[in-house]
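Q: How would the structure tokens look for this protein?
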Amino acid sequence: MNISTTNKKILTDEFNFAIDKMESSKNPDEVLYYFTGFYNMIQRIFNIEYCEELVFAYVIMDRAYGDIMGRMNLIKSGQAAVAFEDDFGPELIKKTKNVRDSFFNREKRLKSLQDLIALSYTATGNGHYLLQKKLSLLDFKKEAITDKTN
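A: Here is the predicted structure in token form.
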């Protein structure tokens, strides 16, 4: 990632702060609030020092937030047919830590962002449906798709 050492330190410090706050939060709203610290700081940095890798990470994390917030809002409005999996909160923190720990290594960052977006997708209607079909998005692994017609 081609950004200054100063901005890498700013990101690292913000990621550490956000993780600490997520871990000490008492409710899901707080956890998600501190999750926003990740992608908002990424956006601040690429506004100052543009880097496409930062934009990509921002878009993935913003989408993850949107999926999760969308489900939380539906649940709060009484539409609780689709709920979060019991381990969703701890998994979100774990996946966010993985993003932090891998952020400056391109291959590892891509994998951790992939895992994060797969988790957040379970908060959508279709993601929940796939979980009900026993397709594990929480342990998402890229596998070759085979043509079953041959």
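Residues 18 and 34 are 5 Å apart (CA to CA).

The helical segments are 5-24, 28-48, 52-76, 88-102, 106-121, 125-132.

Upvote if useful.
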